[in-house]
Amino acid sequence: MSARPTQLSPLVRTLRHVIFGASLSVGSLSMAYAADAAPKVYHIAPSELETALSQFGREAGVLISYGSQITSGLKSRGLEGQYTPEQGLNALLEGTGLQAVADGNNGFTVQSASVAGAPIELGVSTVVGDWLGEAQQTNVFEHPGARDVIRREEFERVGATSARDVLNRIPGVNAPDNNGTGSHDMALNFGIRGLNPRLASRSTVLMDGIPVPFAPYGQPQLSFAPISMGNMDAVDVVRGGGAVRYGPQNVGGIVNFVTRAIPDEPTL
Fold it and tell me: Domain Secretin/TonB short N-terminal: where (predicted)?
């Protein structure tokens, strides 16, 4: 007994045709993209970048997306030779600072090129965020008040080896040696404009313009015992009422120790 052929319903026959047609479409698209990705010969003359990209897109059969703000004013060196679409587009963008990124749908997006991993060399930045500014001799003449700046060259010329040696060379400043009999002998004691050196809390000590003590409005000399003048580039002293900008306790003045810049090469 022979088997009778199964009669397919109209719906099943329709679905078979749709699925078969879809598979043919996908296959044809893949074949078309493979054909487009094959190397071609291009003859694109040097011109405006947008003009060159438009011509390349037509000849290569690919979609190229980009913003006019990144291509405006740029020139292309042109393209001559046999390339795949990706190779040709990158060659066309050479020297423009742009790069092409494939989007996976027979298209490319042009964007700014980023050089990953390249070292970035930063220049010297000077941040001035206080009213003292830089401790330069010229600033003394521009400052509204009594001010003295002793530079490192002066330290070396007079043989100053301690902060006390430097402070005693500034008019109106008295920094006596500690005699070991007082409770403040572990601190740097100095007096400005006639103040008792034991009352150094009436003056503020700064390091590069920043208060360094634990209690800048109470006992500013606490954390400032011995310092190394080898690390200092200048000592900046402001005397008088102008120093009140750093707090109400500054009836005498301010002593600002300016550290040396980090050298580019090892030094002795």
Answer: 62-113
Q: How confident is the model over 125-166, as pLDDT tens digits? A: 766 555 565 656 555 556 666 788 888 888 888 888 888 888
Is 14 part of any domain?
no
148 and 101 assigned to the same domain = no
C-alpha separations of 255 from 194, 207, 219 in Å: 15, 9, 14
Q: Read off the CATH number of the domain in which 167 is found.
A: 2.170.130.10
- Taking the C-alpha atoms of residue 98 and residue 112, their distance in angstroms, rounded to an integer, is 4
pTM listed for this prediction: 0.44
β pairing state of 203-207 and 210-211: antiparallel
User: Do 154 and 40 share a structural domain?
Assistant: no
Separation of alpha carbons 100 and 141, rounded Å? 58
Half-sphere CA count of 252, side-chain side, radius 13 A: 25
Which pLDDT value is given to residue 160?
A: 84
Spatial contact of 240 and 208, defined as CB atoms under 8 Å apart: no
Residue 157: give the domain boundaries: 137-259
Asked if residue 128 is part of any domain, the answer here is no
Q: Among 23-37, 76-90, 141-155, 217-231, which range has the highest average pLDDT? A: 76-90
Which residue, 147, 127, 116, 125, is CA-closest to 253? 147
From 72, 97, 112, the end of a domain falls on: 112
Residue with tokens 């044809």: 28
3-state secondary structure 138-185: HHHHHCCCEEEEEEHHHHHHHCCCCHHHHHCCCCCEECCCCCCCCCCC
pLDDT tier, 64 (very low <50, low <70, confident <90, very high otherwise): confident
The domain tally of the chain equals 2
Q: For position 71, which CATH number holds?
A: 3.55.50.30
